[in-house]
Structures are given as C-alpha cells and as structure tokens.
Specification:
With 164 residues, the chain is an alpha+beta fold. It has 3 helices and 8 strands, in the order E-H-E-E-E-E-E-E-E-H-H. The chain binds zinc ion (ZN) (2 copies). It comes from Mortierella hygrophila.
C-alpha cells in the first residue's frame, strides 16, 4: 500500500480524540506488531463500523472552580479502524458533563484499553480465534446515551459482551 499524502481526517474538536497518545501503551502490551496510522478512517478500514467500550473516567473542571466533577464510565466509546497490513487507528469520544453540559475528554484505563484494542486487532489479523464468551462482562451503570458523543453521531454501539 502506498503511503498517502493526505492530511488525517478531521476530528471534531473537543469531542473526538485521536488515540495516537495511547499507542505507546499498546506497544508495551503487545510489542511492535501493530503500527499506528493517523490517516485511517471508517472509509479506509478493512473492518468498518467497529467500536469498543473502554473503562475510564472523565473530569470536568469547567463547571466548578473549587471542586471538579469526576465520573467513571465502563462505556467510553472508542472507534477502531484497521487495515490488513497491521495498521490501526482509534478515536475516543467525549461525554458531556451532567452539570454544565461541557464535552469532556476521556481518561482511559490503559490496561483495559490495551487489552480490548489488542484483542480486536488480534482477531481481525487472524492471530487468534473468536472466543465464544469470556463471561467477564460486567454490567456498569446504564450508559447515558444522551451525553455520549459516540451515541450522538451513531458510532457507539452498546455490545452485550466484550468477548470479541
Ligand atoms: Zn461540568
Ligand atoms: Zn455511547
């Protein structure tokens, strides 16, 4: 595949976040078998329409000067784009603060992120078989779809299990 000179597809500022910063954690967790490619989008992915839910938290510092507002989520919507030459890209989606409605950047749990992203990439690249079910899916608080940017634009698909 020839390298493209196009700029990366534009993200919606403050609501969508490129996962490039987390690639170092993916390397630590899985070695160098996957490369990050900021050019990828749903249009160029060999597995379009894929997303995973990552555990993490959000902290809104806007609505209070004295006391910030933090909430935890097991459903941080993360799109994954993948090409069969072992390149990938992720986009993490903001959630809105309940108090002031500001969009807040997610802080993902790195171990959980690496586990879920590498698991998906290993499946799509044929490095592992699809599992039936790990049975380790934990129900968390109901997903607040109105405040999830991924839901607002229709890329956040709630899965019943995280087995694959
Ligand atoms: Zn707020
Ligand atoms: Zn959502």
């Amino acid at each position: 595949m020839s390298s493209s000179t196009l700029p990366p597809p534009k993200l919606v500022q403050g609501k969508e976040f490129d996962g490039a910063d987390l690639h170092a954690a993916v390397i630590r967790g899985s070695g160098h078998r996957y490369k990050y490619n900021q050019q990828l989008s749903n249009d160029t992915s060999d597995r379009p329409g894929q997303s995973r839910f990552i555990v993490g938290s959000f902290t809104c510092t806007r609505c209070s000067r004295t006391r910030s507002h933090t909430w935890h989520s097991g459903v941080i919507c993360t799109e994954i784009f993948f090409t069969l030459d072992d390149r990938y890209r992720t986009i993490l989606h903001a959630q809105q603060c309940r108090r002031c409605q500001a969009y807040v950047k997610p802080e993902v749990d790195e171990d959980n992120y690496v586990k879920k992203i590498v698991s998906a990439l290993d499946l799509w690249s044929g490095r592992r078989e699809r599992l039936e079910s790990t049975g380790d899916f934990k129900e968390t608080d109901p997903h607040d779809e109105e405040r999830c940017h991924g839901c607002q634009i229709g890329v956040c698909k709630r899965q019943r299990r995280t087995a694959w």
